[in-house]
Fold:
Amino acid sequence: ESLAKLMEGANDSSSSQDKWLSRVESSGWMANIRDTLDCACLVAQCLNQEGASVLVHDTTGQDSALQVCALAQIILNPDCRTVRGFEALIEREWVQAGHPFSSRHSRSCYSPPTHRHRHNCPSFLLFLDCVHQIHQQFACSFEFNEDFLVLVFEHSYCSQFGTFLGDCEQDKAALGIKQRTTSLWSHVNRPDILSKYLSPVYQPNPIVIWPSVAPVSLVIWKRVLLRWVLELSPEEAAQELITTLRNTDSALRSDVIRLRRTLIQLEEQALKQGVLSN
Structure:
């Protein structure tokens, strides 16, 4: 219901600015993000700073504990902020643990309320949105870019790959998912595909990151929630420019290393031939 209210308000381009902001705020989606991140930070703090064991118990039946535990690992473990580490996190905590993707995503927020049932819930989207919030605050600490998160979101709802099909391992076995489909990760990890989802500003960060949950620090995920409302081409052009500059910088650094090696070889030859003295 929160996501449906958010999308209904966000897609209403005829609203005034004040009314638009009021509808977004009253939807409660951003409050859900804040509460989930706040709880994940609390778990991470208990584990990292107090050395305590933490029991995360979900009483609502809508995957809150799963979201919190997965986010706590992203906060604490730098490996989960790499492409393959994030893929392993989703596979371990969501897919293999039996998260019912088919039941949760069988109806979207655009479905009429009468067609939704209690098993429908965008809990995985809420998790990805929380990861996006952390990504916005610590962009240099993530190996993957925002496009990778958008890709995972899209394939969790509709995909030609078998990663998110079925509600559990029993469903996958009954449908023959492993025999009839391939994994999304095997496709993404191909070098020619993976290059599109690597962040050009990534710098390995081995320490714990602590995201802010202050209202001023949280933003609406435009690439997903406002994709039909806003013109995103300027941001995409900026990302392409950053990638181009990063690649150019890498190429120039390689040229410098090559030229230095050539200079050293020429100096050694000059010393042997007596052209230069020690």
Observations:
- The chain has 14 helices and no strands.
- Residues 4 and 112 are 10 Å apart (CA to CA).
- The chain has two domains: 1-230, 231-277.
